[in-house]
Protein: Sugar phosphate isomerase/epimerase
Organism: Paenibacillus kyungheensis
Amino acid sequence: MIKGISQAGLGSISTEELVRSARKYGFGAVDINTDILIADHGLEGTRRLLEDHHVIVGSIGLPVEWRQTDAIFREQLTSLAVTAYHASFLGCKSCCTYILPATDELPATYMAQSIVRLRQIASILDAYGIRLGLEFVGPHHLRTAWKHPFIHTVADTLTMIDGIDRSNVGLLVDAYHCYTTEFTADDIRQLRAEQIVHVHINDAKDVPLDQVLDNDRLYPAEGVIDLPAFLQALQDIGYTGVVTQEILTPESPSDSTSLLWERSQRGFDHVFRNISTL
Amino acid sequence: MIKGISQAGLGSISTEELVRSARKYGFGAVDINTDILIADHGLEGTRRLLEDHHVIVGSIGLPVEWRQTDAIFREQLTSLAVTAYHASFLGCKSCCTYILPATDELPATYMAQSIVRLRQIASILDAYGIRLGLEFVGPHHLRTAWKHPFIHTVADTLTMIDGIDRSNVGLLVDAYHCYTTEFTADDIRQLRAEQIVHVHINDAKDVPLDQVLDNDRLYPAEGVIDLPAFLQALQDIGYTGVVTQEILTPESPSDSTSLLWERSQRGFDHVFRNISTL
Amino acid sequence: MIKGISQAGLGSISTEELVRSARKYGFGAVDINTDILIADHGLEGTRRLLEDHHVIVGSIGLPVEWRQTDAIFREQLTSLAVTAYHASFLGCKSCCTYILPATDELPATYMAQSIVRLRQIASILDAYGIRLGLEFVGPHHLRTAWKHPFIHTVADTLTMIDGIDRSNVGLLVDAYHCYTTEFTADDIRQLRAEQIVHVHINDAKDVPLDQVLDNDRLYPAEGVIDLPAFLQALQDIGYTGVVTQEILTPESPSDSTSLLWERSQRGFDHVFRNISTL
Amino acid sequence: MIKGISQAGLGSISTEELVRSARKYGFGAVDINTDILIADHGLEGTRRLLEDHHVIVGSIGLPVEWRQTDAIFREQLTSLAVTAYHASFLGCKSCCTYILPATDELPATYMAQSIVRLRQIASILDAYGIRLGLEFVGPHHLRTAWKHPFIHTVADTLTMIDGIDRSNVGLLVDAYHCYTTEFTADDIRQLRAEQIVHVHINDAKDVPLDQVLDNDRLYPAEGVIDLPAFLQALQDIGYTGVVTQEILTPESPSDSTSLLWERSQRGFDHVFRNISTL
């Protein structure tokens, strides 16, 4: 597995600074918006920047809004192939999006439509060798934040992925969402490594499970999630991809960037200390 | 268009009798369970029986229960290729199933799972040149007969068909369900003929729309549905397939079979009288 | 059917002039490179231009080179969604490419690779409601113009389309290629209208069939192809799309543009005179 | 990896005897025709027989002839779902077929048709959780045994698999075919484990590469193939499936069954001795 870092949890750090410092703090991958670097450095310049700083791009966010109208979807889809082409040039093999656990739409129709649109997205990504990771979202409060329940479990997400029916679609497994949906390390062991496109880690406060808030996460090793068991299970099934920190908090952390780097590094060192990494 | 007949509305008529009498009453197609004939006549004998009586098989019912457990689905699926092979040998090109407008399952998951299973069904049928027709079901009382709404409109059924993503899947358009979902002749004109796999006709009682019962249908031309407009719209978009009578009633009609044949013929003659048929 | 015109056969006419004059000479559709108009008039301006001159876009050419290296393919594919989005905005529903009847590559591998790439193209077009038409190419001299035979018949093209397995892929039926592959009007009647994405007409010189040259075509009604029978067969199966003139010649015709328009109009009037058109 | 055994190389041993003795000689899997056992023991009885003798079914042969006419294909396809259902019940997850490196058909058409048929096969298997393994065939003499070259390399087989476009299709990697196509251990390391459905081992005589005959194989460790390197590469990429012995010879070996078992065991022990197995 490769340790990855994102801006979520590092305060107001720029994309470029993230790239420049990641290796120093023990991270081999960055989850970034590559467009920002390409605007400044060009495509070839961005590739060199990544190489010079010995990091790969772990995953990019999906730049297409697939949850709203057809008109918005079709317009935004026009740029996806360019994004995929750039990502592919930079060696990135993964693009991720999340699935909210509730919806104001009628769920049956919304599911069918989501399947159609995510398939179109996956087809374009596939032409560039990029996989699409779908992140199930676990916190209980979000399950009732919209009118109707949608899906929030791994089982249902895998069924949705079967519905999409493209071989380059898989799971984004986030430790926080595993925790809030009670998807255990043993459950992870029932997956095959190739079903997992990307992994997020972070930690949860010691509050009752149904009060864990999506936007109130801790750094790895600072909370109650058994992250070593989580990582060991991923290791056991042969997952060799990126594991990226994503710390969503109500407010941006006020510590200095270097303190946040150190905190992140310390957390990763702790939870990975008994796991072999690449 | 080809006039078709089924046992639903003809009392206790046998499958073979349906075949033997259809042409005499003006019908060129029968919707039947071909297994019953094959058991008695063999496959080649059934083909000859159909030819001798100048009727084709309009559509067969899907012999796979796709709405329950995986175990039931997988077991029943084993027989589908044989059914499809037989149907294909008999010249039948269509197999139909219906989609209930409500469900006790969580609708999002149920949609994803239905898409996966109907795709597997469609793939097998496709190997034998047979299309899968999905019948949306309109009556209002059924929309609340189970816990959660599923889908009941043409638009949603087309989205589901997009989700299934097999080119041999389309609509079964039933006049009763068009009537109860207020899908008009002008709406039909927005469809392309190849989106329609099969058509049912029957008529509705003169009661408020939300009190029309699924199981209380009338013979064509005996109720309030504008069937000539319905048929003309199908004709206008180039639909050349079968239009089969399907009369669901609380109890089997008590009239003699010959009276029921005549009543069916009269209804068809009336609603088709200004429409050219093949 | 809708009469369509292209620049091929009208000398040095500009795209805009083609649009402005088409209706005057009886054509309801133009096959053009829409980018040229969009560069001058913007997207909305191009839509108005087409509307003001009462023509639709019959088909656009595929802007992706899918016959060469992966690198070229992937780079060119990046622009397809934008092209499709524009075409869709302009009301165009069809995009076409041709398949050469021979290849220097090993045919089995080349077929598999072509299937993969054309599927990726079709998936992108499908997100914008645009179909992909594949033109089989008949002239005998081209069948040996490269090392190995590839495909040139309708039957093989349909098998390839099955291989691609996207419901928005169909045939471009060119009268010249039907003639040179001896695909008759009766053969056309075995097709279903929805299998045909687009149609080309033009005529052939009175030379032995195996000496008909791809690049030496005549205007409709000036040669030996029975175009009325060809069109009648398309009409009989319910084809209601565009039929575009495409005259490939060794040198650009030297007549004035207005003479070439009149010659095209005369040819269409002649071959369509007993066929009802929209 | 799990050591597997088949009848090919064990003389006239029966299927049941193979099952009964495999574990004794160190094999954890058998590649068999399960129908033979089911005929004798019933489905549940066969499951017990396998369990009692501590072996799993490594892979079954594809019971559908997909290389001949449509009529033969469609007829044989009718039984596939039953076979898949049985295999699934018995815990088998793989079904394999081979691809000849030459063909009397025109290769382009044959490839498109093979893609269509293998997709239909894969769709049925997928409904039962079974993968389809495609075996590329390397010996030089077979490349010219029919009129036209088809495919024989891993690269081309992977392109064909992309063409088939079903996520449950992958490679059967046979050491003999790797050797004869010069697909090295380092080349195997470029594959992902999930691309490999099944593995065969056997050994080759010390003759020039282009004179290695398909039907003249040796037992593992008796020839010139570097099987330890082959197995180590599979181990390195995380392949955890079955590796089955398949010894094709001009005549059935004349040694006693027990000698052939011992010879097989000795070969496996030798080539696996530095590889950890499950």
